[in-house]
Amino acid sequence: MPAELVRLRASIDNLDAALVHLLAERFRCTQQVGVLKATVGLPPSDPAREEQQMARLRQLAQEAGLDPVFAEKVLGFIIAEVIRNHGTIAEQTSRPDA
After folding, report:
1. Model-level pTM?
2. Alpha-carbon separation of residue 15 from 10, 19, 21, 22, 65 (angstroms)
3. Tens digit of pLDDT per residue, the chain (98 long)?
4. CA distance 74 to 23
5. CB atoms within 10 A of CB 86
C-alpha cells in the first residue's frame, strides 16, 4: 500500500474522531438548551433560529470551499435530531412522574 495512502487515511481517521467529539459536545450543549426550553415552556423547534443557522452555515461552507448544499443537508439532519431530543425532554419534563 502506498505510504501516501496510509498517511491520508490516518488523517481522515483523525478528522473523523474530531468530528465525533465535536458532535458529542454540540449535543451536550443542545441537551442543556432543551432542558432550559422545557423549563420555561418554549417549543422544541425555533424556525427563525434554524433559518439563521442555515444561512450562517451556507456562508461558512462557501468560505471554506465546501458545497453549501451538502453542508445544509448535514446541518438539517443534526437540527432534526436536536428538535426530536428537545421534544423528548419537553415530554419528560411535563410528566408528573418525571
Report:
1. 0.85
2. 9, 6, 10, 10, 17
3. 999 999 999 999 999 999 999 999 999 999 999 999 999 999 999 999 999 999 999 999 999 999 999 999 999 999 999 999 999 999 999 876 65
4. 12
5. 23
- Give the range of the structural domain holding residue 65, as residue numbers without chain letter: 3-94
Q: How many domains does the chain have?
A: 1
- The Cα 95–Cα 98 span in angstroms is 5
Q: How far is CA 48 from CA 35, 65, 74, in A?
A: 19, 26, 18
Find out whether 32 and 50 touch, Cβ atoms under 8 Å: no
What residue type is assigned to position 24 of the chain?
A
Q: Whole-angstrom Cα distance, residue 46 to residue 3?
A: 48
Question: Positive or negative CA dihedral for 78, 83, 86, 88?
Answer: negative
